[in-house]
């Protein structure tokens, strides 16, 4: 199971009364490593820099799983993007970039998400990630 959902949040969802804040609290509490990585990438986007990133491999498979679940889920990823005001991009098993929404139409964004960018970001130590 990806998320630990408190009864009150489950009941709010059943009544169609759940909001983003409740959902984000569940994500933050259930996937703390993923929350930390996305938060760090978003915070790294400062000044004129078009994107911030986090490139540190997860300390264990547990944390890697959290990151993969967060970024593979459309609803979780979308909530994180709305909360942090970024567009997330993901390479390998740990390289997360947080782009300013205005940068999505930029050459640097297109390069980051391109097949070429993916190939250039490979190394033997990342083969099994």
UniProtKB/TrEMBL annotation:
It holds the Pfam family KH_NucS_shadow. It comes from the Bacteria. NCBIfam families: SCO5389_fam. This is Uncharacterized protein. It comes from Pseudonocardia halophobica.
């Amino acid at each position: 199971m990806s998320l630990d959902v408190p009864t009150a949040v489950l009941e709010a969802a059943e009544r169609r009364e759940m909001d983003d804040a409740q959902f984000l609290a569940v994500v933050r509490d259930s996937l703390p490593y993923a929350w930390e990585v996305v938060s760090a990438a978003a915070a790294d986007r400062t000044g004129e820099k078009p994107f911030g990133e986090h490139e540190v491999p997860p300390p264990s498979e547990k944390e890697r799983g959290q990151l993969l679940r967060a970024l593979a889920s459309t609803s979780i990823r979308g909530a994180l993007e709305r909360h942090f005001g970024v567009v997330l991009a993901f390479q390998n098993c740990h390289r997360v970039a947080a782009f300013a929404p205005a940068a999505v139409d930029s050459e640097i964004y297109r390069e980051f998400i391109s097949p070429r960018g993916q190939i250039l970001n490979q190394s033997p130590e990342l083969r099994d990630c």
